[in-house]
Every structure is written in C-alpha cells, then in structure tokens.
Amino acid sequence: MRCEKSDMVEEMLDAPVTGPSLWTAADFHGGDLMFELNDKDLKELDQALDGVKRRGLSLGEFGAEEFPLPGLQGKLAEVRHDVTAGKGFALIRGIRVDEYDIEDLEMIYWGIGAYLGTGLGQNANGDLLTHVTFHDLDPSNPNVRGYQDRRHQEPHNDLADMVGLLCVRKAKSGGASSIVNMTAVYNEFLKRRPDLLPIMYRGFHLDYRGEGADPKSTTPYTVPIFARQEGRLSCFYGRRGIDGAFEKRGQEPSIHEREALALIDELIMTPDFRLDMDLQPGDIQIVNNYSVLHARTAYEDYEDPSQWRLLLRLWLNTPAAKPPESIARFTRRGFEDVAQRG
Fold first, then answer.
1. Residue pLDDT, tens place only, 174-187
2. How far apart are CA 274 and CA 254, in angstroms?
3. Partner of 287 for a Cys bridge, out of 89, 146, 165, 177, CB 3.0 to 4.6 A?
4. Mean pLDDT in the chain?
5. How many distinct structural domains can be found in the chain?
6. Among 84, 53, 13, 1, which residue's Cα sits nearest to residue 226?
7. Eight-class DSSP state of 86
8. Does residue 307 register a pLDDT over 50?
9. Which residues pair with 201 in a beta bridge?
10. Which one has a higher pLDDT value, 189 or 232?
C-alpha cells in the first residue's frame, strides 16, 4: 500500500507538544479522575427520566432541553471541557445501575450525553447505543467487531469526537479499560524517528470491517495517524483497520511503513503513556477520540449469561472537538459513505 502524498496532508508539528493534553499515568491519583454524582444529582436524573417517559419520548427523540438537569449541568460542562480542551478524558461515578432496567438506564445515559455532544449512529443499522458484551460470533471472521467478543483489544480510536462507556456489569475477571495519551506518544515518536513522521501524517487506507454491502470495502482515501489544525495535534489509529485494508487491497506496506507502524505499536504500549481504569458498575468513562486511544484486556465471564460483562457505548460529536478534515472525513462520516456502496 503506497501512501502517496494527499492534498489533505497538513503541515507537521516539528516541536514537542505541550499543554493540558500532555500527561503520564503518574500525574493522576484516584480522586483526580472522578466527577462524583451526589444524591441531588441522582434525583435530578430520576426526575428528568420521568419527564421524558411521561411525554412518550424514546431514545434519540430528546436532547438536553427535554432532559433538564439544572444542577448537574454545571458538572457536565466541566466534564465536556476536560474531555475536549483538557486532559482528554473524564470519569463520572455514581449511577445506581441496579435500580433501573436496561431501557431506563439507556435513557438516562442518553440524557447525560446530550449535555456533552450530539449522539450518533454506530453502525450501518443506525444503532444509537451499542451493547459492549459477548455476542458469540465466529472469532475468525475479520469483520467481527472488538466489542462483540472477549479478546484483548489493542489501543484504537472510534468513529466519533467523543466515546462514552457506561459500565453496567463487570466481568468475572479481566476486562480492564486503558487509555493511551497520544500527545506523549507523538513527542516520543518525534524524538526517536522524526524521519518517519511524514508517513504518519500521510496515513493509511482503513478497513470498513464489513459495514456496508461489500464486506471487502476499504476507504478510498488514506487517513493520517497524526494531523494538525491551528497548531492542535489530533490522532487516529487502529492497527487492525490498517492491516485489514492492506489485506483486502492485496498490498503490502513498505519497509519504512513497517518501521513506522512498529514504532507506534511499541509506544502505545509504554506504561508511562497508559492509564488503566478498573471501571465499576455505574461508572461512565468519556474520552476524546482525537487525543487518546482506548483499549481493553481480555476477560472471562460468569457462566450465567444474565451476568455477562456489559457496557453501554455512546458516540458523540461536538463543535468543540475541531478535528482536521483529513481525519474528520472518516470519523465524522457516520456511515454515509459506506451506505452509498450498498
């Protein structure tokens, strides 16, 4: 796969990136990570839930105006700022998941998300919330998504400005969540192999992973791993999508492309650049899709399917994100360009 120069390649950042998006795992302690919900916050959520149910509104049919949170909205504004203009992630703790059925929990989650951004469809079917749980699909199928099985997930991005995960049930063992600071990764990449940065800015074709009529479809354009806009660094990386595109296009990476990918794979596994989170039931993790990658360890479930690990995934877009067009045309496309192939 040749990464010929594209008209969407931005000027490279040739100096280390500084600012609030740069951190290491040692910078944080337990209390620094969380926005705790108190009894007043939870009461507001219950009242807002009752309101949308009385009006007969379903998931996706209401926003912040129909889901009023007069006290909690200030805390959620802090969350949004932390994610979009700060360290790139936030953890909300305290949803009492055992007090709701799954439908009500989804409504509350959607209502919280409405204060952070605009909810998106997550697949060709337009599902607004994805159940991250075991789906008992053929693991040898290259189009099986990572959220559908129990295997380890390498650090990657999703197709949105922000990604939310609400923990409903933990696994019997494993399933820890990790986030990787790509600002720190970039600085180390720049220090060690600046000669390979042009490859990272040009990027690679990506595998659509079966979303669309043609299971062999890939992006017709390359998506950069690193890009800049107005001096701001953004990233997008998923090795599985890159390798899948190489295979489906019947091509091989060059020697320098192999070196660049090997280095990025090494750096995203560096412990100092990674923050591990043991999400508890009722925790909501929100991440900036352009400044951090997220990952998950393999896990083992309980025998009872009703007790299997379950997280609810929410994709959100927000004007505050401002990703470069070279990345946004992939992450913000929804599934429009895939559907056009069907």
1. 889 999 999 999 99
2. 29
3. 89
4. 88
5. 1
6. 13
7. S
8. yes
9. none
10. 189
Q: What is the predicted pLDDT for the residue at 215?
A: 62
Q: Is residue 275 part of a domain?
A: yes
286 DSSP β-pair partners: 90, 164
Q: Give residue 201's domain range.
A: 28-339
Residue 23 lies in a domain: no
In the chain, the amino acid numbered 5 is: K
| Within-domain flag for 18 | no
Read off the amino acid at residue 176.
Answer: A
What are the DSSP E strand ranges found in 30-126? Answer: 34-36, 89-93, 118-119
Give which of 162, 210, 198 is closest to 335, Cα–Cα.
Answer: 210
The residues, any chain, with a CB within 8 Å of residue 6's CB and separated by 6 or more, are: 202, 203, 221, 222, 326
For residue 173, the model assigns a pLDDT of: 84
Q: How far is CA 297 from CA 91, 152, 171, 174, 261, in A?
A: 19, 5, 11, 6, 21
The single residue listed with the structure tokens 């067009």 is 325
C-alpha–C-alpha distance, residues 14 and 148, integer Å = 39
Question: Taking Cα atoms as reference points, which of 39, 41, 64 lies closest to residue 51?
Answer: 64
Nearest to 312 by CA among 107, 64, 116: 107
Give me 168's structure tokens. 């409903």
Give φ, ψ of 10 to 5 degrees: -85, 160
- Evaluate whether residue 3 is within a structural domain: no
Residues counted in the chain: 342
Q: What is the mean pLDDT of residues 80-104?
A: 97
| Closest-CA residue to 199 (of 263, 266, 270) | 263
Contacts of 140 (CB under 8 A, 6+ apart): none
> Cα(311)–Cα(132) distance, rounded to whole angstroms?
5
pTM (2 decimals)? 0.88
CA dist., res. 307 & res. 133, Å (int)? 11
What is the pLDDT at residue 33?
Answer: 74
Q: How confident is the model at residue 122 (pLDDT cuts 50, 70, 90)?
A: confident
